[in-house]
Amino acid sequence: MNVFRLAGDMMHLLSIVVLLLKITGIKSCRGISLKTQELYLLVFITRYLDIFTNFVSLYNTVMKLVFLGTSSAIVYYMRYDRIIKLTYDKEQDTFKYLLLVAPSAVLALATSHVYTVLEVLWTFSIYLEAVAIMPQLVLLQRTQNIDNLTGNYVFLLGSYRGLYILNWIYRFFTEKHYRQWLVWTCGVVQTIIYCDFFYYYFLSWQNNEKLALPA
Amino acid sequence: KDSKAAKDEL
After folding, report:
1. For the segment B1-10, what is each residue's pLDDT rounded down to a tens digit?
2. A51: which residues sit within 8 A by CB, 6+ positions away?
3. Sign of the torsion angle spanned by Cα atoms A31, A200, A40, A163
4. Residue ranges of the domains in chain A?
5. Using CB atoms, which residue from B5, B6, B10 is nearest to A64?
6. Residue A177, pLDDT above cutoff 80
7. pLDDT the model gives residue A154
8. What does A58-106 look like in DSSP terms, one character per residue?
9. How many CB atoms lie under 10 A from the CB of residue A198?
10. In angstroms, what separates the C-alpha of A131 from chain B's closest C-alpha?
C-alpha cells in the first residue's frame, strides 16, 4: 500500500467521522442528503459482500467493517433518531434514486468482467459510487448558510477521491499488471463531479467567507 | 484479470 492510498483512506474515514460528529454532536443533519448516505450504504454493501471470502489484509477487513458500520449508523440516525430526523431537509432532498441506480445497474450488467452475482454487484458498486454524491451536491446548492462541518465533509470526501487517483497513477508505474480501466474511468468521473464544489470551497476559504454554491 | 487487482482497494 502506498502513501496516496493510505492518505485517501484516512480522508475517507475522517469525512465520515466529521459527519458523525456533526450529526450526533449538534443533533442536526441539516444540509446532509439522506439519499447520498443511503446510496453509499448500498455501495458498501454491494462492494464488500466478499468480506469473508476474499481476505486481503486485516487493514482491509477492519476498514470494510468500519465503513459498513458507520454508514449504517448515519442512515439510522437520519431516518430514526427522534431528534435528528426532524432536522432532515426532506423537501429539498429530491434527487431520484432511480436516476443513479438504474444506469449503474444496466452498466454493471453490460460491462461486468465475469457474470457471477458478486462480480456484477461489485461492478455496480463502482459505477454507483461515482455518482452517489450528486444528491448531496444538489442539496448543498439549495442550502442557505452551509455550516462548516458540512462543507468540510464534502471537501474531505472529494480529497479522498483525488488521492485515489494519485494512488492509481503511482500503482500504474510501479506495478506490472495494474490496468483497471473501469475503476479508473469511474474514479476520474467521480472526481470531476467535485470540481465545481472545490472551486467554491477554495474561493470561500480564500475570501474568508461562508461557503455558498450558486444555484 | 484486471477486476481482481482492484479488490485489494476499498
Report:
1. 444 567 899 9
2. A61, A64, A65
3. negative
4. 3-205
5. B10
6. no
7. 95
8. HHHHHHHHHHHHHHHHHHHHHHH-TTGGGG--TTT----HHHHHHHHHH
9. 15
10. 17
